[in-house]
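3.2 Worked example (two chains)
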Amino acid sequence: MSRLDIGVLNDIPRLGARVVQTEKGRIAVFRTRDDQVFAVHDTCPHKGGPLSQGMVSGTTVVCPLHNWKIDLNSGQAQAPDVGCAHTFVIEQVNGRLLLNL
């Protein structure tokens, strides 16, 4: 497994996202109000909407196209919707964010 250094926490806006282009495609890296960091493919499982442009609430992002709610921990869509966005592990090491691919 490879790890990609994607910067520091402050490179990601609080309650927002930053997109990282990788060999696995576009990955959205989200930061919550309490500075938790999550990474998921930047594609909603419903119609492929850009999750990075969605609103973050708690540990959920709302797809900007059709309001699907995606859990940032698991990538699972919240009921009644069904589907899953692939998630990636982010590690914080010496102040740097490392994305596990």
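3.2.1 Second chain
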Amino acid sequence: MSRPLCKYCLRPLISCYCDLCLNIDNQVEVAILQHPSEENHPKGTAGLLHKSLNDSQLITTEQLDLGNILNTGKQTVLLFPTGEDAQTIKAADLTPSKTQLIVIDGTWRKARKLIHTHSWLKQLPRLALTETTPLSRYDIRKAEKPEQLSTLESVCYALTAIENNDEKYRPLLDNFDEYIQRFKRFIKD
């Protein structure tokens, strides 16, 4: 017998996070490219992020169609810190309403694979968070390096910097903390 699912977040009702979703009017358009293995991952953060940002799309596939993702009327940048040409948000000098931020949701190995597989992703300007980015709060999943963040955290910090608004995304980060605590309690039970 299958467990009843929430109609909104598609999670089992016992792990529904809908009450943590916010209604944030982000100025920067966000496209989350999710590796298929992350779609139903119980520790994933992309769903909460997507359902909290009014101007976002969540695309789950390994075969990315450039035409359905890129907004040609905006400057598109890839939030991915590795690579010689990665520049900080401050150096990129982006206009929020004229920027599309693409982020890859998946393990670092899978993210690198998506970039390697799709040459158009390699060609996008790469954006790195500043050196003052806080350490990750995401202690329920292993990272390769201490400075690596979850998808939700990295996008929140990037939007905070691009939109120059320290308070706007703080409630989502607070809800993310609650999301993590619920997961920890769920595992104990």
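3.3 Remarks
The beta strands are 29-34, 56-60, 75-79, 87-88, 99-105, 126-128.
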